[in-house]
Amino acid sequence: xxxxxxxxxxxxxxxxxxxxxxxxxxxxxxxxxxxxxxxxxxxxxxxxxxxxxxxxxxxxxxxxxxxxxxxxxxxxxxxxxxxxxxxxxxxxxxxxxxxxxxxxxxxxxxxxxxxxxxxxxxxxxxxxxxxxxxxxxxxxxxxxxxxxxxxxxxxxxxxxxxxxxxxxxxxxxxxxxxxxxxxxxxxxxxxxxxxxxxxxxxxxxxxxxxxxxxxxxxxxxxxxxxxxxxxxxxxxxxxxxxxxxxxxxxxxxxxxxxxxxxxxxxxxxxxxxxxxxxxxxxxxxxxxxxxxxxxxxxxxxxxxxxxxxxxxxxxxxxxxxxxxxxxxxxxxxxxxxxxxxxxxxxxxxxxxxxxxxxxxxxxxxxxxxxxxxxxxxxxxxxxxxx
Length: 386
What we know:
It contains 14 helices and 9 strands. By secondary structure, it is of the alpha/beta class. InterPro entries: AB_hydrolase_fold (IPR029058), DUF6051 (IPR046114). This is Alpha/beta hydrolase. Pfam families: DUF6051 (PF19519).
């Protein structure tokens, strides 16, 4: 398979609005609708703390696209109900599912399971369209470069996220918590038999990439209502402790935004001086925040975090890439601890130039055969485990 060609083919037919039957695969892509229900009051209380900015004058809690949205599922053709799901979680600052379509197709075909493409809060189709419109954003890029001296990696791709997180770094946590509530709701709907595609008590495993890996680790640690007691987790290009991540990139966020985010969470967020954090007192030490804190710095809650990964080492696998500087292997080692790292973690390298954001690039001289071999090497591991 030529990954580039197949990606273009799937991109051309992908839809949030109608079922797509794949003519050359025993699969179809079904759209579903999600209306945020769980944790509404908590999310509203958090988002009301965030002031609006010039970039977006609409308060976060009034952005309807984020509350009411469509998502899609790759599933075997004609299946009315199934009892096995793989949840696929994407990376930071993603606006479309293009590169994930071949990932989902391969996993669904190889496992026979339904693969759920679920968007993180304020990502994919959960934002106003002008957040990813190049014409609307170029003036903001110019303005950003004027406001921040020596800023050389501001682009129309990262300017929306960069402005939002520079204004209020706490958004990173609040959006993550909103995503946690959304996934909690999705897991509950599936487990209770309320989802139209899944039988009651269906199994749900997770394949997560980049910041989706970080979110899934926190979700596994928090384990709301014990819904993830039997969940298996496979992480690709992810799994690092927060302090070792580097999100400064032309397609993620600019270096000034990431400097502010990193400084806030490594310092102010972790302090006991509540005046720094702006969080509602009622939710300061809830189980989701505790799980998040455990993944910030290696020395914080070290025993709690490492003992958790030791306990679930049979249910988690992580593959990192040697040249990945966004989610480096060393950061994953610090997250896991020494007792289970050899069981869980494997570092690989590809015989071509690649990046964290694009592990299977079509423009760096790698042949289609070489890319497909690397692609199947990863996704056969995922399929075998999940």
